[in-house]
Amino acid sequence: MSPHTSPRHVIDPAGGCPHALNARLRAEGAVAEVVLPGGVPGAVVLGHEALKEFLAHPDVAKDARHFPALHDGTIPADWPLRVFANAQGMHTADDADHRRLRSLVGNAFTARQVERLRPRVQDLADGLLDDLAAAAAGSADGVADLRTHFALPLPMSVICELLGVDPEHRGRLHHLSNTVIISTDTTPAEVMAAVRELVELIATIAAARRAAPGEDLTSALIAARDEDGDRLSEAELIGTMRLMLVAGHETTLNLISNAVRALCTHRDQLALVMDGKATWSDVVDETLRWDGPVSWFPFRYPTRDLTVAGTLVPQGTPVLAGYTAAGRDPSFHGPDADRFDLTRPTAARNLSFGHGAHYCVGAPLARLEATIALERLFTRFPGLDLAVPEAALPHQRSFIGNSVEALPVRLA
């Protein structure tokens, strides 16, 4: 890379709240050199405009064949972040392969198709709020964990229903996906074991749908594969299902959790919504910008030496997308970018769902789930508040996921 005055930042696998680190690195430039866990050199794009350009750049790829160090013996076989590079699916495909894989699931996530899910999401949310109220009433101190009883089971139930996953698998799916994708401080052996079990479990789910097809996305993917064996390989089927299951609940879980934290600690902003001066969609947009569910996400690779915001990023460098950093970039969002403000005119232009060809296919569903969850939650429990000071909430042990591990609340 180009000469720099400060040493590379060594990423802590345990992560933590990213915002202070983002501000420090962003002050030195829109692109930072980093050392990934395992001593692997890489980079992170931190500035809004730089990230927007990088995400849509024609000379940036997602296929790990453009990451030479992964294949030439430089990086050990048990490197924990291989799980991101080696996964097969639309999120690691380029060009025609990417378009082919995306087309197989895209129709299920159009705005029109997602809107048809609204009554079901509302019913699920109302039932889970009953469970949340029961959990709070049954505890000695009137406290319940909102992540456990509401923010997790809502998106998990929706994506599992869409994919035809039987309820008994859902708890294990979340545990495994959290180990593989979110908890970046786990050991290589733990990650590899979790990957194997997750793949086996998804194969079991696919086998059940192959034996008894239904009106679900997994059955549709299997039918597409069986109609034309070249259209979807078994690895692509498993990879696509894994992407849908993991991304379909982990990010929305964090989005709902972060929005609730933000509103509880900014009661004036909550009052704007309750008084009809802002919308729940505004809350979702500003949360995505101010405290997005994904912090630094792997990987993209320049297919040639590339200059991004004045910094040379050599061909084949594994690059992280710094979503939380871009969300608080003062050069785009203004000098008060660190302030949670539902009236901010640039909030809807956040990059938390990506940009360009790989823009999150599930974004309409995540928005629907989050807006319904927040509206139902605060309409039923307008006095809901955190049960502990926000600073005492344990942050996810991850540099990829950005939220807290638990969200204890009192309902009134």
TrEMBL record:
<keyword id="KW-0503">Monooxygenase</keyword>
<dbReference type="GO" id="GO:0047748">
    <property type="term" value="F:cholestanetetraol 26-dehydrogenase activity"/>
</dbReference>
<dbReference type="InterPro" id="IPR017972">
    <property type="entry name" value="Cyt_P450_CS"/>
</dbReference>
<protein>
    <submittedName>
        <fullName>Vitamin D(3) 25-hydroxylase</fullName>
        <ecNumber>1.14.15.15</ecNumber>
    </submittedName>
</protein>
<dbReference type="GO" id="GO:0020037">
    <property type="term" value="F:heme binding"/>
</dbReference>
<comment type="similarity">
    <text>Belongs to the cytochrome P450 family.</text>
</comment>
<dbReference type="InterPro" id="IPR002397">
    <property type="entry name" value="Cyt_P450_B"/>
</dbReference>
<keyword id="KW-0560">Oxidoreductase</keyword>
<keyword id="KW-0349">Heme</keyword>
<dbReference type="InterPro" id="IPR001128">
    <property type="entry name" value="Cyt_P450"/>
</dbReference>
<keyword id="KW-0479">Metal-binding</keyword>
<dbReference type="GO" id="GO:0005506">
    <property type="term" value="F:iron ion binding"/>
</dbReference>
<keyword id="KW-0408">Iron</keyword>
<dbReference type="InterPro" id="IPR036396">
    <property type="entry name" value="Cyt_P450_sf"/>
</dbReference>
<dbReference type="Pfam" id="PF00067">
    <property type="entry name" value="p450"/>
</dbReference>
